[in-house]
Design goal:
This protein has 349 residues and is mostly helical. The chain contains 13 helices and 2 strands. It has helices spanning 10-37, 42-63, 74-100, 103-109, 113-125, 131-148, 162-185, 193-214, 217-225, 232-251, 262-283, 290-314, 324-332; strands at 258-259, 336-337. It has a two-stranded antiparallel sheet. Helix 2 crosses helix 10 (232-251) and helix 11 (262-283) packs antiparallel against helix 12. The model is unreliable at 254-260 and 322-349 (pLDDT under 50).
């Protein structure tokens, strides 16, 4: 085996993939722990995460020159309103879905992200996806349906409600809209993902704050503070931890470390799904049925197939004058810059 595949970049690649997987898992499980302990404070919890991310971006800008805080202008804010609104609506439904379903079922409830993203992207660009892409999307959709089929084995108190599945579908739909809007919004931020992340977090916090008041979550928090049965430490530290990890995922693209190929990211995402399922069963005593396990497997297979299809479709044809040795390198080392937008946005068209 050629030792070039195990050069000095290998530890960096492993570090990036390991960080991505760890951060994504931390986000899901700490979010779930907080929402289990404070189910009546979902919007306030989300607001704190957004504010912490904004604060940390300001701190990072002091020490990291590549983290640039954008100049706040009304014209830019108006142009970015659609992507900000889609983002916060998607985050709200995402949080409500995670609150109401088991951690291991969460990826099933949001299993339609890939098919809906393909549909929205095709409608937006007026293009027809290839047959193989349709097969991948259909496979994922079948996996979703397999997981949501009612099962007599699942106790009634942990069975997902129709409303929680509705939250999951809406969350998936708005993630699809967000994926399409990001590309058209970047020019308003000097094509800076960091500036767009700042606008998105700040704008989302501003839009969310009135709903926190209308939902009376501030009053609910005051009541819980005086409740001896409520563990405020979980809520406080959970907000801090998820806010920090959300920020780290936001700026991870600045590392400019290149992954060997989309296959690396594909298998890391698949492995994360398995780990998330096992941890959900272990930490939260989630119920795992044959249907649910089969659903996760089918969704993972469909996502892996889709990634492979898009990778092969995007691969440039080999040049005739290239040496065989260089051609072999292209099969394994197609460079892909990893830019993280969030722990649950793996599926991109």
């Amino acid at each position: 085996m050629n030792n070039r595949y195990f050069d000095a970049n290998t530890p960096k690649v492993a570090a990036v993939v390991g960080f991505y997987m760890s951060a994504a898992l931390v986000m899901v499980f700490v979010n779930k722990a907080v929402l289990n302990g404070s189910p009546d404070l979902p919007l306030l919890f989300l607001l704190l995460q957004l504010l912490i991310a904004v604060l940390l971006l300001h701190v990072a800008a002091v020490f990291i020159t590549r983290v640039e805080i954008p100049k706040l202008e009304f014209g830019t804010a108006k142009k970015l309103t659609p992507v900000v609104l889609v983002n916060i609506i998607g985050l709200i439904f995402n949080t409500l879905c995670l609150r109401d379903v088991e951690a291991s079922f969460f990826q099933i409830a949001r299993g339609l992200v890939l098919p809906l993203t393909i549909i929205v992207f095709s409608a937006h660009t007026h293009t027809v996806p290839s047959v193989r892409v349709v097969i991948a999307a259909g496979t994922v959709a079948i996996g979703f349906l397999l997981g949501v089929v009612p099962s007599a084995i699942v106790p009634a108190h942990v069975a997902p409600s129709g409303l929680s599945l509705f939250y999951g579908i809406l969350s998936s739909l708005f993630i699809a809209f967000h994926a399409v809007l990001i590309k058209s919004s970047l020019p308003y931020c000097n094509n800076s993902t960091i500036q767009l992340a700042y606008w998105t977090n700040l704008g989302s916090a501003i839009f969310l704050f009135p709903f926190v008041l209308l939902h009376r979550e501030i009053s609910t928090l005051e009541d819980l503070v005086h409740d001896s049965n409520w563990d405020g430490q979980v809520f406080l530290w959970g907000s801090i931890v998820t806010g920090i990890f959300g920020f780290l995922l936001c700026i991870a693209g600045l590392l400019s470390i290149k992954i060997t190929s989309p296959i690396t990211h594909m298998f890391s995402s698949a492995l994360r799904s398995v780990i998330q399922t096992l941890l959900g069963v272990w930490l939260f005593k989630d119920v795992m049925t044959v249907n649910r396990a089969g659903s996760i497997l089918v969704i993972t297979i469909g996502t892996i197939y889709y990634t492979w299809v898009k990778s092969s479709e995007a691969a440039p044809p080999p040049r005739k004058d290239e040496r065989r040795e260089d051609s072999d390198d292209d099969h394994g080392d197609g460079e892909v810059t990893v830019v993280f937008g969030g722990p649950e946005e793996d599926e991109k068209v």
